[in-house]
Specification:
- The protein starts with 11 loop residues before the first helix and ends with a helix.
- The protein is built from two helices and no strands.
- The chain is an all-alpha fold and about 70 residues long.
Length: about 70
């Protein structure tokens, strides 16, 4: 007499193998950027971060100045 799987689900090893196969297929779809694009995007992110930091610092200084005027 042969064993029957509950609900005809494949075994754990077959499910893991299927998942790994799907993962490999998804990784093959990835379009990896070239070095120039990575460099440009890094420079953009660093520049935007610095600009935002300056804006926040200026806003903080203005608020501190305003609070000092109000408090005394």
């Amino acid at each position: 007499m042969a064993k029957s799987n509950k609900n005809n689900k494949p075994g754990i090893f077959k499910r893991i193998a299927g998942w790994c196969g799907g993962l490999k297929a998804e990784f093959q779809k990835i379009i990896w950027p070239d070095k120039e694009k990575i460099y440009r995007e890094t420079v953009t992110v660093v520049t935007a971060t610095i600009c935002l930091g300056v804006v926040i610092a200026l806003f903080d200084m203005v608020l501190q100045y305003g609070m000092k005027l109000l408090i005394g």
